[in-house]
Amino acid sequence: MSARVMVRMAPKLKGRHNALTLTQSAVKRLKELQAKGAEEQHNKTLKIGIQGKGCSGNAYTLSWVDAPKKFDEKVTQDGVTVLIDSKALLTLIGTEMDWFEGKLASQFIFNNPNIKGACGCGESFLV
How far apart are CA 37 and CA 112, in angstroms? Predict the structure, then answer.
């Protein structure tokens, strides 16, 4: 007796998307920061990570690094390169990084679709 096997053609794989996208205002601000760093002889790359802290449990970290670690994800968009810490990659997939400049504060904002909750002040989040 023979078994019937159904074969389906796999859909064509789509091109790989960046784990993180940058808005035009974020790209502009990062270029300004990198130009300032080049003047000071610091050719470093911004690295985004996640640290356990705050009311909801996690917070974003931003740091300047000389070189990526072995498993860091490299995101390049519009001439700007950002690194994502390997431990934060799954949490950040699909996130949009924006730059907000207001009268009282200027900061990077992360629009993350993976967040399940956030604290009232917006500094920490829950995945």
Answer: 28
